[in-house]
């Protein structure tokens, strides 16, 4: 009987841990392509940022000149673009760039945010992560990452609302095993919170140590993006920029891990550790009077 009780407690504990982890990561993890582009800009050195900003400035100056020309001819920029033979997509892209470029010299808008908007338009619109992975024509369509992501997403959808209720039910079932030992129940739950919190904190600390020893540096990526744009004299680059995809992977890996393990997950882990420690101290305090009597 004691063995069955221990087995039941162990099974419920495993299920609870899985449910809590799924609930936390399903709620707070968000892989955002636009934010990843922002991190590419943010983790590059100042020279690479400045070089790219200068090239973007050249682009914006060209568009401003076109707008001035349109005004002098008393026609809209869209009309001028049609007259010059621009295709529909090019015309639409230029019109979108006008709005972005008008904010280029606005000091209240960080250059990082401007870079995201500019790259969003130049790339034809960055798709949302879900749409990118679900698109059959996407280069990621047949990748193992897509298969795993899709499976997790399909599992998560029906559990999004029911999972918190399931967690409460499992805590209730666990209590039945300790019905006559409420202090033991509190001690067991406190230990579970402590373990869960530690497992949430450890990956974040590993990432922190990793990025402290080897800081994220996306300068090569920024330089490649800069090389792909026309220079300030208007000349187009010759050939395609050369960049080792292996290096790109290791540059982007910590950035993507940061999105999987956001700061809020670390804070939840710390919170669970504090609850666990407080619970264990509380149980110890409750047991103290009885031990003194003995």
Describe the structure.
The protein has about 290 residues and is mainly α. Helix content is about 75%, strand content about 0%. It is built from 12 helices and no strands. It has helices at about 1-30, 35-40, 45-70, 75-85, 90-100, 110-120, 130-135, 145-175, 180-215, 220-230, 245-260, 265-294. Helix 3 (about 45-70) crosses helix 5. The longest helix has about 35 residues, at about 145-175. Residues about 125-135 and about 135-145 have low confidence and may be disordered.
Q: How many strands, what sense, and barrel or not for the largest sheet? A: none
Calculate Rg over CA atoms: 28 Å
**Shape annotation:** elongated
What order do the helices and strands follow? HHHHHHHHHHHH
Q: What is the number of E strands? A: 0
Q: Into which percent range does the helicity of residues fall?
A: over 70%
Low-confidence stretches: 126-133, 135-146
- The computed structural class is mainly alpha
Helical run tally? 12
- Percent strand equals under 5%
Global mean pLDDT = 77
Instruction: State the distance separating the first and last CA atoms.
Output: 29 Å
List the helices and strands and how they pair.
Layout: H1 2-28, H2 33-42, H3 46-72, H4 77-83, H5 88-101, H6 111-122, H7 129-134, H8 144-177, H9 182-213, H10 219-228, H11 245-260, H12 263-293
Helix pairs in contact: 1-8, 2-6, 3-5, 3-10, 4-5, 5-6, 9-12
Summary, kept brief:
It contains 12 helices and no strands. It is mostly helical.
């Amino acid at each position: 009987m004691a063995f069955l009780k221990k087995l039941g407690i162990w099974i419920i504990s495993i299920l609870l841990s899985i449910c809590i982890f799924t609930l936390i990561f399903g709620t707070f993890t968000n892989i955002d392509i636009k934010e990843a582009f922002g991190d590419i800009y943010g983790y590059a050195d100042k020279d690479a940022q400045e070089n790219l900003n200068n090239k973007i400035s050249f682009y914006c100056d060209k568009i401003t000149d076109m707008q001035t020309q349109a005004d002098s001819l008393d026609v809209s920029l869209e009309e001028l673009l049609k007259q010059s033979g621009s295709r529909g997509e090019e015309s639409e892209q230029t019109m979108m760039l006008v709005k972005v470029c008008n904010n280029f010299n606005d000091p209240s808008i960080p250059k990082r945010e401007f870079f995201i908007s500019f790259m969003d338009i130049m790339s034809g619109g960055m798709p949302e992560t879900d749409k990118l992975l679900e698109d059959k024509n996407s280069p990621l369509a047949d990748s193992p990452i897509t298969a795993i992501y899709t499976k997790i997403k399909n599992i998560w959808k029906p559990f999004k609302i029911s999972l918190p209720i399931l967690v409460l039910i499992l805590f209730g079932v666990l209590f039945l095993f300790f019905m006559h030992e409420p202090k033991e129940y509190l001690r067991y739950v406190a230990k579970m919170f402590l373990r869960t919190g530690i497992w949430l904190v450890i990956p974040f600390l590993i990432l922190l140590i990793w990025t402290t020893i080897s800081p994220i540096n996306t300068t090569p990526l920024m330089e490649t993006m800069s090389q792909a744009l026309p220079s300030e004299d208007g000349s187009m680059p010759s050939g395609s920029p050369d960049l080792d995809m292996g290096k790109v992977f290791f540059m982007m890996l910590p950035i993507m891990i940061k999105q999987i393990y956001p700061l809020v997950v670390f804070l939840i882990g710390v919170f669970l550790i504090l609850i666990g420690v407080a619970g264990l101290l509380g149980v110890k305090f409750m047991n103290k009077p009885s031990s003194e009597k003995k």
